[in-house]
Design brief:
Length: 110
Amino acid sequence: PKPQNPSKLKNSLWLYNLSIKNDSDVPFQLVARQWLITDSEGHTQEVKGLGVVGQQPLLRSGETFEYTSWATIPTPVGSMKGNYFCISEDAQFFEAPIPEFALAIPRVLH
């Protein structure tokens, strides 16, 4: 197949930066993630897999892991929310919810 002309592509590409901090006394490892990415027409896509950006970071007490990733949606406005799936050093699995955030250019919302 031929590559598409970028000017004819209809998806919006969004970059996002996230920071994960261990505020507990117990080290944990982020092993997987799940994202629900919703466009402005209400269509939701689920993305899940191991780690984040090819890593499964181990965070000791007080440590922070930051990363940048991306998502595409077919509309100029949307939102994302999800969960990190983690395991503590003492082998306890837990989920860390990621609150919903907007994918929008500020002027588009107003």
